[in-house]
Design goal:
It contains 10 helices and 8 strands. By secondary structure, the protein is of the alpha/beta class. Strands 1-2-3-4-5-6-7-8 form an 8-stranded parallel beta barrel, surrounded by 7 helices. Strand 7, helix 8 and strand 8 form a beta-alpha-beta unit. About 4% of the residues have low confidence.
């Protein structure tokens, strides 16, 4: 599909984040492939997946656009999400139509800001769509100025530039942040994708009403242990 067709195909739809790492109770070989197949069967319009290896496997069996990310040195470096052009190229070669990059005011190993990866990709891989993972409305503005096709507040609470650190423990999205990001990129071609604590269909619809082009859901669909923990925590609060 052409870029415009992919953007249109995601409109008002569900993108499922299909990720698992060793140490999680549901981790097993090819689990992310089964997640992606289940998401497609259920009506998702896109997949978000981590690493060239997983993307290549998913692409063989699922006919949906893939937002490819590559988490490298997470919890070690400030810039860990597709941190450079080389990582982006490997995601593209694996089959990701959309490349997700960190676009915050953190510096890469080479001293450049993470959002500078956007222009590098646009120059070297002009066919790719770019998905900027951000933390603040200011990040969204910079990402849009650099040519990002999508922005999402994926990194709110995960970087030192978190928008409101005191709200990251809640079990609902930061709707104030979503509103401010939508306002920040208004008048540009950049689309807002809501990602983060979208735990019910009703919340997903609310995000669309607030201006999101689409929503990404991960924990509530593909990480049952996290969903169980959320329910258990809420019931404990009831007893308290």
């Amino acid at each position: 599909m052409k870029k415009e067709e992919i953007i249109a195909s995601l409109k008002d739809g569900l993108i499922v984040s299909c990720q698992a790492v060793p140490g999680e109770p549901h981790y097993m070989e090819n689990i992310t492939v089964k997640m992606a197949e289940s998401a497609e069967w259920g009506g998702a319009v896109g997949i978000r997946a981590n690493s060239p290896e997983d993307i290549e496997k998913i692409k063989r069996v699922v006919d949906l656009p893939i937002i490819g990310i590559w988490k490298i040195d997470r919890n070690i470096k400030d810039v860990y999400l597709t941190p450079n052009l080389d990582a982006a190229k490997k995601l593209w070669d694996a089959g990701a139509e959309i490349i997700a990059v960190q676009a915050t005011k953190h510096k890469r190993d080479d001293g450049k800001y993470s959002y500078e990866t956007i222009k590098e990709i646009k120059k070297e891989i002009p066919e790719a769509l770019i998905f900027a993972d951000i933390a603040t409305p200011e990040d969204a503005v910079i990402a849009a100025e650099n040519g990002a096709d999508f922005v999402a507040p994926t990194l709110q609470g995960y970087t030192k530039a978190g928008y409101f650190d005191n709200v990251t423990i809640k079990d609902v999205p930061d709707f104030i942040l979503l509103r401010d990001i939508v306002d920040a990129v208004k008048g540009t071609d950049t689309k807002v994708i809501m990602e983060g604590k979208v735990s019910t269909p009703e919340i997903a619809v609310q995000c669309l009403y607030m201006g999101a082009h689409a929503v990404v859901v991960g924990n509530a669909i593909t990480r049952p242990h996290i969903t169980a923990k959320r329910f258990a925590r809420m019931l404990k609060r009831y007893h308290e």
